[in-house]
Each structure stands twice: as C-alpha cells, then as structure tokens.
Amino acid sequence: MTVMPEATLTSTRLVSVVLGTYNERENLAKLVPAIESIFEENRTSCEIVVVDDNSPDGTSALVRELGMKYGNVRLLWRPEKMGPGSAHADGYRAAKGDIIIGMDTDFSHDPYDIPRFLAKIDEGYDIVQASRYIEGGTYEVNSFRTWKKKMASKFGNVLIAFLSRVPVHDFTTSFRAVRRGVVENVKTESSGNSFFMEFLVKAHRKRYRMIEIPIAFKDRVIGKSKLKLGRQSLRMLRDLAKLCFR
Length: 246
Description:
globular, two-stranded parallel ribbon, Spore Coat Polysaccharide Biosynthesis Protein SpsA, Chain A, about 250 residues, single chain
C-alpha cells in the first residue's frame, strides 16, 4: 500500500481520526502506527480519538499505552457496549480537529486512503463520503455471511437514497471526512448505526457540499463482526421512516 502521490496534505490544520472499538486490541495495535506514519509522511498534525465500549480484551489499556508513546492518541471510555454509530457520534463531538475522519478499526477501510479524502476537502467540499457502490468501489465477499451483509447493505442504501432524495450511494459506511463546522451544525438523534445515515441526510438538507469517492471495502481478517444484521436492519428502517416522514 502506498500514499496516493497527488494527495499532498498541508500542515496548517489538525485532523482528528475517530475510531470506535469493542474488542479490537489486535487490530488497533497495527492501525494506530499506520495512521501515525501516514500523517508523519504528509507532514500534517493529527490526533486519534478512540471511543471504546469497555472492551474486555484490554483495548482501553492499549489506547493508554499508545497515548503515552505517541502523545496524540486519546481515549473516550464508555462503560457499556453502545455500538459504532453511537461511538462515532460521541467521537465527532470530542474531536478537536479542523477536519474529522471516521473509519472502521478492523482494516475494512484502508488507512492509506486518508490523503484522498483530505485532497477532496482541499477542493472545497464539506463532506467526503466513501462509497462501495459507485464506479471504482468494491465490496469484498469471502463467505455467505459476507454476501448477506453486502446484499442487505446494497438494498438498504438504495432504499435510503430513494426515500430521502439525497444523491448518495453509500450512507452506511463510517469512512468519511467532515469539516468541523458541519459537525457543529448538524444535530443528530440516533443512538445506533443510523447515525451514519442521519448525519448525511441532515447535512444535505443544510446544503453542505458533499462528494463520494470509491473505496475497496475489505472483509475483516482479525476478530469478529459486531453487526447484528436483522436487528440493525429493522432499526435502520424505523429510523429512516422517522427521518423522512415525520
């Protein structure tokens, strides 16, 4: 993996990377050094905000160690498992950066894509959203379980776009870059994974400039998926109805 050569970052801003975790110690031990090296190579200041839901595998202890090592890794500890949508919502609010980047911790999202997101912010966009469903985007399928997740995700995103009338193809992935002003002005209510959808819909209604860029979405190699497909799908449909028809 290499940093895209055309995406040279600037050093006059702070970028916050928000990571939601639950039993991700092994992945986090590899991801944080990768993120640190990307920002060091591009001479840009960053902080990493890890929102951990009281992981029993020692994730929080590792974050504290990484904070001592790098000096820019912060832990937002929560006493119970509340899910990635809620984690990112809290992480957005806790972040200090001029630009806030959310992403998964299990390497489903390639950290070396980060410069591509920031290059689009530099072009004047307020939100840069990753997409698995536009030209150039892919969704890796290695099992029947992953295929089911892909089909549910693809159908769900088509439904969200149709009902919300927001011209976005991928509402449900956490990988995105957002200007601080958008986070301050877009108020969300969802406590679950619907946060990702709700944030984009409300930002579009406020006429923020938004663009999608394609990503290669990988299936996790280490650890277990926390997604409960049936439960999350029903909650997403409920929250979508509230968002579009209230």
